[in-house]
Amino acid sequence: AQTVTQSQPEMSVQEAETVTLSCTYDTSESDYYLFWYKQPPSRQMILVIRQEAYKQQNATENRFSVNFQKAAKSFSLKISDSQLGDAAMYFCAYENFGNEKLTFGTGTRLTIIP
Amino acid sequence: ETGVTQTPRHLVMGMTNKKSLKCEQHLGHNAMYWYKQSAKKPLELMFVYNFKEQTENNSVPSRFSPECPNSSHLFLHLHTLQPEDSALYLCASSQEGRTYNEQFFGPGTRLTVL
Fold it and tell me: Using alpha carbons only, what angle is made at residue B5 by residues B1 and B10, rounded to the nearest 5 degrees?
């Protein structure tokens, strides 16, 4: 079974600075997807960014980018120019290709310091 | 209403009560999910419905009973719950058959069992 590990329960960053959230996963599969979901205090979780394992290029969505290291099974999220609205729980998730079930990590609570 | 809605947002019940959680998705998706979110634990997938058919039941106790009358509505019937069942219950939906499974979440129901 796949597992997803987020070793940082809490992180904080100064507004306008850059922060990186860590995620590692364990799988024997070669085709899969990885996701970062954001859950703001209002609790509606939304997808931030996704990465296909077969793509070597790291995904980027505006201020959000990932560092995907397939051999190391690492999938970190970098948030640049942090904003107050980025404060949330961030969950890393894994999906086997063709399985359509998500396996989540325990989350990292990100605090933005004004 | 847009996206995924859940009612009620908060629920307090005794161990002998019977209550139901409701989820509705307005996205035209064909799959719906129930998750349990407890502090410091990964999201636990409870049930999956594809085209109204239950395809996943992750060893959930029988005191939780799901119902999916159509692809837009999902219920979770609760009876004789235990205090350890107190958690945030999230509903999600997705369009299965696509390349990757982006799930859209509702705001959750905060359940407290006394």
Answer: 130
The pLDDT of residue B110 is above 90 = yes
C-alpha to C-alpha distance for A28 and A53, rounded to whole angstroms? 12
> Mean pLDDT, to the nearest integer, of A30-56?
92
Question: Tokens for B15?
Answer: 């161990």
Cβ atoms within 10 Å of A88's Cβ, excluding its own: 22
Residue whose pair of structure tokens reads 């395809």 in the numeric block? B55
Distance (Å, rounded) from C-alpha B8 to C-alpha A90?
A: 24
For A105, the closest chain B residue by CA position comes to B42
Q: Do A4 and B42 touch (CB under 8 A)?
A: yes
Q: Which residues of B touch A43 (CB under 8 A)?
A: 88, 107-108
Helical H runs in A36-83? none
Query: Among residues 6-65 of chain B, which lie with CB inside 8 Å of chain A?
Result: 31, 40-43, 45, 48, 56
